[in-house]
Task: inverse folding
C-alpha cells in the first residue's frame, strides 16, 4: 500500500521542518511546500531530511496560481494530498495607528487567505476518497490578542473560525479539520527577540520554558493519525500553560 501524501506549507521553517520530519517518521510521504529557497537553505533543509521520505516543492501560498500548480505537480508525481498542514505564516508587526494597508494585506494573505486557497484545492478529493486530515497552525495570540499584532491576531483567530466551520461541512466524509495554537516556540522569529523580552515571556509560562518545534509537531502528528477520526473542529493549545481556557 502506498503511503499517504502530506503537504506541509512553510515546510522549511522551524515548525514546518520538524512537522515534516515527524510526519515522515510516522510513515507518510511528505511534501514540504515553501517559497523557492536559495541553494544553501535548500541544501540545509535536505540534509536534515536524509533517510526520510520528504520532498521539497516550491510554493507561494499567497499566490492561488502557484498553489494550484504545486498541487497539480504533487498529484502527478506522488498522488493526491491526504493530509494538509497549513503552517506558513509571517508577521508584520505595528500598532494599528502605524500599520500600513500593505502590512495588513500581506499578513492576511499569507496567514489566512492561503488556508482558504489550499483547503479548497484538496477538500473535494479528500471527501471523495473518504479520508482527509487538515491541521491549521494558529497561535496563542489569536486567542488572547497581542500588542502590535492586530493583523496577525485577526488572521490566526480567523483561521480557527474557518477550521470550525469547515469541520462541520466535511465531518461525515471522513475528513477532520483541526487547529493547533502554539505559544512561544524556539524558532528564528523568537530567537530574534531582544533578550529582556524573551525573559519576560519566559516568566509568564507556567511550564518554565520556551516550547520547541517538536512540541508542535507531535500535536500535529496526533491530529493527523488515521485513528483520530473523532477529533474535529478542535483547537489544541500547545503553550506550556501560557493561556488556559475551556
Result:
Amino acid at each position: 500500500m502506498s503511503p499517504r501524501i502530506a503537504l506541509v506549507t512553510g515546510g522549511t521553517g522551524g515548525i514546518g521542518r520538524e512537522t515534516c520530519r515527524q510526519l515522515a517518521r510516522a510513515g507518510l510521504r511528505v511534501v514540504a511546500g515553501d517559497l523557492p529557497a536559495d541553494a544553501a537553505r535548500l541544501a540545509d533543509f535536505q540534509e536534515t531530511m536524509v533517510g526520510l521520505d520528504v520532498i521539497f516543492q516550491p510554493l507561494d501560498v499567497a499566490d492561488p496560481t502557484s498553489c494550484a500548480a504545486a498541487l497539480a505537480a504533487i498529484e502527478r508525481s506522488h498522488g493526491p494530498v491526504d493530509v494538509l498542514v497549513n503552517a506558513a505564516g509571517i508577521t508584520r508587526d505595528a500598532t494599528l495607528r502605524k500599520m500600513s494597508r500593505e502590512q495588513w494585506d500581506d499578513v492576511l494573505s499569507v496567514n489566512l487567505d492561503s488556508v482558504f486557497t489550499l483547503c479548497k484545492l484538496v477538500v473535494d478529493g479528500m471527501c471523495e476518497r473518504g479520508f482527509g486530515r487538515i491541521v491549521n497552525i494558529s497561535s496563542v495570540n489569536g486567542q488572547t490578542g497581542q500588542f502590535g499584532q492586530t493583523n496577525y491576531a485577526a488572521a490566526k483567530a480567523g483561521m480557527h473560525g474557518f477550521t470550525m466551520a469547515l469541520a462541520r461541512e466535511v465531518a461525515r466524509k471522513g475528513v477532520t479539520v483541526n487547529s493547533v495554537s502554539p505559544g512561544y516556540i524556539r524558532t528564528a522569529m523568537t530567537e530574534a527577540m531582544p533578550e529582556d523580552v524573551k525573559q519576560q515571556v519566559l516568566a509568564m509560562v507556567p511550564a518554565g520554558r520556551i516550547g520547541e518545534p517538536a512540541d508542535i509537531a507531535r500535536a500535529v502528528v496526533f491530529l493527523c493519525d488515521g485513528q483520530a477520526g473523532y477529533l474535529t473542529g478542535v483547537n489544541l493549545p500547545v503553550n506550556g500553560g501560557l493561556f488556559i481556557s475551556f
Notes: The first strand starts at residue 5 and ends at 9.
